[in-house]
Fold this sequence. Notes:
With 264 residues, the protein is α+β, with helices and mostly antiparallel strands. The protein folds into two domains: 15-114, HIT-like (HIT family, subunit A, 2-Layer Sandwich); 122-263, PUA domain-like. Helices cover 16% and strands 26% of the residues. It has four helices and 15 strands. Strands 6, 7, 8, 11, 12, 13, 14 and 15 form an eight-stranded mixed sheet that branches. It has a five-stranded antiparallel sheet with strand order 1-2-3-5-4, covered by helices on one side. The model has no long low-confidence stretch (mean pLDDT 86).
Amino acid sequence: MKCKSPFLDNRDRIFENSIGFVIYDSYPVNKGHCLIIPHRIYPDYFDSNAEEIKGLNELLFKTKKFLKDQFDPDGFNVGINCGQSAGQTVMHMHLIPRYKGDVEQPAGGVRGVIPLMQKYSMSELTLKKLYSREEVHRIFSPDTNFTPGAGYWGIQGVISLSDRKGDYIFFVTYGSSQAKHEFDEAITSEGVLSWQSQPSKKLSDKSIQELIHHNEKNNNIFLFLRHRKGDDYQYLGLLKYLSHDNLREKPVYFQWQLIDWNLR
């Protein structure tokens, strides 16, 4: 079975040996969530040879020590999904740090891991695919109401995901305006997005401070962009904070790196 790995991108490798490498998960369920990935591309753990099992376990234990030193978690979940029905078609291992209070009832371990994160149907998101606002709403907040052209999900450009503090969705429409402000937003050839907040926002606002201190290793900002009003939005992946203009506000000016730019 020939597989195509989704992990051979430009994410920084934390560790690497002759068998595989370690990266942070692009959709972390907890702070420090890592993936241990073999260099050889194959379907699942049961296709590993003895040398690969040994090398991957070396990376697993090394990563566990690294995460303990970096984040001081109270425990870990180690996870391997095997087979398409189990949610995996390319072999990789999950190492998920756990913290006291990250779920109300930790009993059951991997049966639940982080229940709130299970609501994100990441398999429904495809890079460069077009989505309507209603489709995005159905993926991220299916238990809430959606009203086209009105309400929180129907019109807002920035959606804060209520079940995961620090996660956002950006809906960007080129050439739009609000409160007499003409938005000047664009993406460079290097995948850097110039973006402005709502015109009423000041640098000291709590929501702006959260964006300034956004850490892509702990939280996600999902970018959906369209070129004109009335079109569907193209999903362009996750964002990494680069900088903001500390001299301008109402709106605040940001620079974001598209993490998945080289996969486009």
